[in-house]
Amino acid sequence: MSPVIDPTRAQRRLAWALSVLIGVSMCLRTSELQSEFTMITHPEPARTIGPTCRNSAMDSAPGITALSRDIARRFHLAEGAAVSITRAAFSAAQASGIDPTLVLAIAAVESKFKPGAVNPATGARGLMQIMPRWHQDKILGIGGEPSLMLIAPNIAVGAAIMAEYLDAEDGDIKDALGHYLGTTGAERYVRRVNLEMAHLTRVLKAT
Predict the structure, then answer these.
(1) Largest CA distance in the chain
(2) Which positions ≥6 away from 130 have C-beta within 8 Å?
(3) Number of helices (H), then strands (E), in the chain
(4) pTM, two decimal places
(5) CA dihedral for 65, 81, 133, 141, sign (positive or negative)
(6) Cys-Cys link to 117, which of 111, 145, 162, 187 (CB 3.0-4.6 A)?
(7) CB-based contact 128:157 (threshold 8 Å)
(8) What integer pLDDT is reported at residue 126 of this predicted model?
C-alpha cells in the first residue's frame, strides 16, 4: 500500500524549506556585502614601483567601459570579451601595483587580445604570451599551464612578471619591456607597447 501524503503538511514543509533557503541566501549576501564594504573602505595600498609607471584610475567603471569599447572596436572583439579582459587587467594591475594601460598594451601587442593565442615557435601562451618554462612558480599558483588559456589567470601572471621586471629596473618601462620580450627586436616592441599605452591612456583620460 502506498503511503498517504497529507498535502497540507507537504506544503508546510516546502514553505519551511524555502524560508530556510532564502534565509541562508540573505546571510551569504550580507556577508559578501560586508566584505565588499570592508574592501572599499579599507583598500590595500598599491605597491609603488617607480616614477615612470604609476597605478592610476584603478576602479573607474566609466574608464573600464570606455577602454572595453575601444578595444572591442579596434581588435574586433565581442564587447563581453573586451569587458572581461579590461576588468582582469585592472584587477591584476592593482594587485601588482602597475598601470592597467601598460598591462592592456602588452596584451594588445603580444596577442591582439586573443586568449587562445599560442606561439608554436616559443610555446608562449594566452593573452600576455606567458612562457611556461620560465615562470613555473607563478603558473602553479594559478592552477597549472591549462589556466594560461583563461583570461584572468593569464593576465594576473603577466602583470606579476612585468611588475618584477619593473622592480628590477627601478621602474624603467623600456628596460622592463625588453626583459618581458626576452629576445631580439626589443626597440620595435617597446615602441609598439608605448604607442598602444599612450592611446589607451588618452581613452581613459577622456572619460
Answers:
(1) 85
(2) 124, 139, 148, 154, 157, 158, 161
(3) 8, 0
(4) 0.72
(5) positive
(6) 111
(7) yes
(8) 97
Report the chain (207 residues): mean pLDDT per 10 consecutive residues.
36 40 38 37 36 44 96 98 98 97 98 97 96 92 94 97 96 95 88 98 95
For residue 52, which amino acid is it? T
- Residue 87 carries which side chain, given as an amino acid letter? R
For the record, the C-alpha cell of 133 comes out as 618554462
What are the φ and ψ backbone dihedral angles of 173, each rounded to 5 degrees?
Answer: -65, -40
CA dist 159 → 38, 52, 88 (Å): 25, 16, 10
Please, what is the Cα angle at 125 between 120 and 130, to 5 degrees? 120
- Burial class of residue 53 in the structure, from the number of CB atoms within 10 Å of its CB (0-12 exposed, 13-18 middle, 19+ buried): buried
Measured CA to CA, the distance from residue 188 to residue 66 in angstroms comes to 27
DSSP-derived letter for residue 144 is S
- State phi, psi for 183 to the nearest 5 degrees: -155, -170
Q: Which residues of 102-135 are buried (b: 16+ CB within 10 A; e: fewer)?
A: bbbbbbbbbbebebebeeeeeebbbbbbbbeeeb
Cell numbers given for 67: 577602454
Please list the residues that pair with 130 across neighbouring strands.
125
Q: Which three cell numbers stand for residue 160?
A: 606579476
CATH of domain 61-205: 1.10.530.10
Going from N- to C-terminal start, the domains of the chain cover: 1-42, 61-205
The cell numbers describing 109, all together, are 601587442
Q: 89: helix, coil or strand?
A: helix
